[in-house]
Description:
It is a single chain. Helix content is 0%, strand content 65%. It has a single domain (29-262), classed as Beta Barrel (Lipocalin), CATH 2.40.128. It contains no helices and 13 strands. The radius of gyration is 22 Å and the shape is elongated. The protein starts with 40 loop residues before the first strand and ends with a strand. Strands 1, 3, 4, 6, 7, 8, 9, 10, 11, 12 and 13 form an eleven-stranded antiparallel sheet that branches. Strands 2-5 form a two-stranded antiparallel sheet. The protein is an all-beta fold. The protein has strands at residues 41-61, 67-68, 75-92, 95-111, 117-118, 126-145, 149-164, 167-183, 186-205, 215-223, 227-236, 241-249, 252-262.
Amino acid sequence: MYRRILALILLMPLTAAAQESSGGPLFMKDLLGGREFFEPWGVGVDFYTMDQDYKIEQLDFVLPGVEIGDTSLIDVTNELQHFDLKFDVWLTPFLNVFALVGRVDADTYVDLSRVPVTGLPVSLGVLQVAYDGTVYGGGVNLAWGTDRWFVALNNTWTDSSLDGDFDSNVSAFTSQPRVGLIRDKWTFWVGGMYLDTDEKHSGTIQLPIPDLPPVPFNVELASMESWNYAVGVGHVFSPQATLYLEVGFGDRDHTLFNFTYRF
């Protein structure tokens, strides 16, 4: 579902306990004041899931004599799973940049059963759009903190190359502010996720009417709500290995699991 994607997001708070060295391409090291920092390079694995509601931006059926009524009555939901491999580097003590590539598997359900349709003897029912493919993208992570607390802002842009029953196109921008505490090798945070999704599908569908040929359609979707809440926990196993889990709730649900190795 996403040219987009979701999805996916790596939190890396500053903490003196996290790393033992700070070599590589790190600039502005004087800002650390002699404190230890993350190893500059990272390779991570993300697993991301999300359930959310969509709104209809545009819906077109190419069927003469047939008109669809109030599109606000259309219920649209989306479910996805996303896996990716992420590569990142700290350029300064507060700026991290990353790139990702992975796979997305999603289903979007467009429920047309409550919408009045003139010119047809039956309701249109539920249109299921299933798709999967390659997701790719990148972003920046801004972070600052001490050995006791941190704040972070992660921004991610994703696109995808999709396969499925229709011609599908999905892209997304996510922004995730977080504030948290550091306790020994554990981190705890609260925050939110802003999501701007652009999803488009076009093709032909077979309506439940005898002898009616496939009907061309085009639908453009967007996230129903922009924000949801999030809480998370992370653990530093060693200067090279970290593990994070985040759960989102509210107007959308999401889970994010990340394991990263740094060098």
